[in-house]
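hiii, so i know i said id send this last week but things got crazy w the move. better late than never?? heres the sequnce for the chain we talked about at the cafe, plus the structure i predicted for it. fair warning i was half asleep when i ran it
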Amino acid sequence: MDDLGGFLKSRRARVTPQSAGLEPGARRRVAGLRREEVALLAGISVEYYVRLEQGRSTAPSEEVLDAIARALRLDEVERAHLGRLARPARRTARPRGDLVRPQLLRLLALVERAPAMIVNHRGDLLAANALASALFPGDVRNLTRFVFSTSGRELYEDWETIARDAVGQLRLAAGQYPGDRGLATLIGELSMGSEDFRRLWAARDVKMRTHGVKRFRHPLIGELELGYQHFEVAEAPGQRLITLLPEPGSATEAALALLGSWNAVIPDTPRASPPGRPA
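okay and structure toks below
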């Protein structure tokens, strides 16, 4: 689902010679840095760097990877992704599964004034409280797939940013779980069905969004601005608890209260969703 050479090429294409302190020179036929310029900045031989991009050199040292990461100005998430691609584990990492602990389901049920949900590394919606179920129209089973649906394009105010983040998260998961057939199937399905997905996937960006702000255009209650926070579920690798919190006293808080009143019967345990169905 991903390869070291493609990732390195995409990263060096982002870095200009000027930003790296190099003279651009004339007749440049590549975007960003040339291979020899990356090798110069990293302090390694051009031949060795070329072998890395071509997949002819395996198990580079951490020192070499750190030097390349500095030359290409990778952030922490990209550096970790580089390491997984360059030195894949002998045993494929596997998520712990899609079962959500009963205590976490009860926690979701207790969160009554904000949307809260649990997703896995593919974006499968494993469980959601009443407000989260009401926020997303229809029977959403996979948030990544939902982003590229007509309903997703209508719901998200900043759709391009949301889509780019979703694809970057999926690309990151592909490096973490290269043997996941469900993940490969999802990527193939989205690639076949969405030109926008193909465009964003080709950029090879990896992202790990832990907090920020999302804006929605809900068909019933209008515009919403919600701060999101992701929490990793330590005992279940790949699972994340996501909360969407309005500012106290804001119009969004009032709108969510109205939405909650229309869904007044809140069960003791929230909906748990079997993953993998279409959004």
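btw The chain has two domains: 4-86, 102-272. thought thatd interest u
miss u guys!!
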